[in-house]
Specification:
Structural class: mainly alpha
Strand content: under 5%
Largest sheet: none
Helix content: 40-55%
Distance between the termini: 31 Å
Mean pLDDT: 91
Length: about 200
């Protein structure tokens, strides 16, 4: 998220400062939210599905595929593009991690942590609002603090190491919410103005 921030792109000369207006910022945040926020329910469903298989809570004869899509609808509001059949379709298996039994939770955690790290580093610069416009590139104090955290390796618990940078000793999705707050405010106003229903259809 650091490398694509409008402030960083301006600093590198890839984007002109005059081009960054509220319309640009909302489009930027929406595009990034589709990559980062929309990924969370998918990554959650990946491991939830695997664990249901481990516990034999999925009938492998009759609901191997339908259970996958039930979870995708429940947690992400995503439906299959075409009718599916449990006898011939195994859509979950199209993702390498399912048939190879590779845990997916690490990706979910990484998405949360990147925003938590980013917010902490922006706060070190005094930036607390409009996090998407924060640019920490070249800030030696931030770099030293990040280096200090990484140099701990596994000498301390992960929660202590996290706290050394963020001031928080647990995973905290609030940083992601803070980052996308301008988009959230805009979406609330747009949905209200246009009468769009919110939730799964």
């Amino acid at each position: 998220i650091l490398l694509v921030s409008p402030a960083h792109l301006i600093k590198l000369g890839f984007l002109q400062e005059e081009a960054v207006n509220s319309h640009y910022e909302i489009n930027f945040l929406l595009r990034l939210a589709l990559q980062k926020v929309a990924f969370l329910p998918f990554s959650y469903v990946m491991d939830k599905y695997r664990f249901l298989l481990f516990r034999n809570e999925i009938d492998r004869e009759h609901e191997l595929n339908s259970k996958w899509w039930a979870l995708r609808i429940q947690h992400g509001g995503i439906m299959a593009a075409a009718p599916r059949n449990d006898e011939i379709n195994f859509d979950a298996g199209a993702k390498y991690h399912i048939p190879s039994n590779v845990p997916y939770l690490r990706y979910f955690i990484a998405h949360i942590l990147q925003f938590q790290f980013y917010r902490a580093m922006c706060r070190l610069q005094g930036v607390t609002k409009r996090l998407h416009m924060c640019d920490i590139y070249g800030n030696k104090d931030v770099g030293e603090k990040f280096k200090e955290m990484l140099s701990m390796g596994c000498s301390k618990s992960w929660s202590e190491i996290l706290e050394s940078l963020t001031g928080e000793n647990k995973l905290e999705s609030k940083a992601m919410l803070d980052y996308f707050q301008p988009l959230y405010n805009w979406l609330k106003m747009e949905n209200l103005a246009r009468g769009y229903p919110v939730g799964w259809m």
